[in-house]
Amino acid sequence: MAAAGWSSLPADLLTEISARLSSDADYLHIHQVCPHWRAFTVPPSAYRPWLVAGREGRGSGLQLIGEYSLRLVRGDAPGTGVHDPPSDLPYCCGASRGWLALVDDDQNPTRLVLWEPLSNTDISLPCLSLIT
Amino acid sequence: MAAPESGDGNNGAARMVTLISSDNTRFEVEAAAASLSQTLQLTILDGGGGGGDGIPLPNVDSATLSKVLEYCIKHAPAAANGGAPNATAVDRAELERFDNEFVNIDQSVLYSLIMAAHNLEIEGLQSLVAKKVADMIKGKSPMEIRRTLGFPDPTPEEQAEMNAHMLEYGWAYE
């Protein structure tokens, strides 16, 4: 009886439970538990682009964004819907939750922008500089 | 959320209400505790549940209701203080200890509790059980989640569909 219950849990309760998970693996796993859970949970690839790997290693400094292979992993269609990065912000200095932090120069950056490859949204941030 | 008797109840004894479970067991409880339920709070503010009347709860059996009320009685003082801004660290630690212990129960009871909290709109209880279930799910495979929550073994169709999803998301298992 209880099992029949969990497998038809009200959608808002499923949402509340899944909101308390933190890893992509967990989101993926609850999405596969049963048809009802599949219908009311969102697998990570549906909303999160994945930065897969750098094409070549460098000793130090920031990587040029073009040196990364940027893929949205969705089924067997890698790269679906991912925009090209802004050409005047070639360096990536961080990534979180689908957003990339881009700067214009790896030594003396003057611009810092958060960029989201799926929607091509960018948000300019104040650029931090070293205190000398 | 304010206790309903705070406006009119300076007559000593706390106001009591009667709740009736689906299997016809009567529970007498302080209105302040029952009012942790948004649904019950409305009825109680309307003057319901007192005397011989009682509020019928056709969706909640007596075992579940007794557990729900245990939670409400424990949390009522803090809730009456508006989330207990002046609670001491000791009080808060005690509530946290109670909560952890409270949800350390079988999945079938957790299910009854989260459904009752959902029906009765007891936000704190719903969120407590949701967190417990999420903790039980973390780090487990779909099959392990099914076993943890007492799902029956998948039918051949369900198994085929799960396998298809494993393939679709194969990259995540590399």
From TrEMBL, chain A:
Limits of the KIB1-4 beta-propeller domain: 87-129
One Pfam match: F-box
Top-level taxonomic group: Eukaryota
SUPFAM superfamilies referenced in this protein's UniProt entry, alphabetically: F-box domain
Domain F-box residue range list: 6-39
Signal peptide: none
UniProt name for this protein: F-box domain-containing protein
Source organism per UniProt: Eleusine coracana subsp. coracana
Name of the gene this protein is made from: ga17879
UniProtKB/TrEMBL annotation, chain B:
Keywords associated with the record: Ubl conjugation pathway
Pathway: Protein modification; protein ubiquitination
Pfam families referenced in this protein's UniProt entry, alphabetically: Skp1 (PF01466), Skp1_POZ (PF03931)
Domain SKP1 component POZ: 16-75
Record InterPro entries: SKP1 (IPR016897), SKP1-like (IPR001232), SKP1-like_dim_sf (IPR036296), SKP1/BTB/POZ_sf (IPR011333), Skp1_comp_dimer (IPR016072), Skp1_comp_POZ (IPR016073)
Subunit structure: Part of a SCF (SKP1-cullin-F-box) protein ligase complex.
Similarity comment: family membership: Belongs to the SKP1 family.
Protein name: SKP1-like protein
Gene name, Swiss-Prot/TrEMBL: ga14711
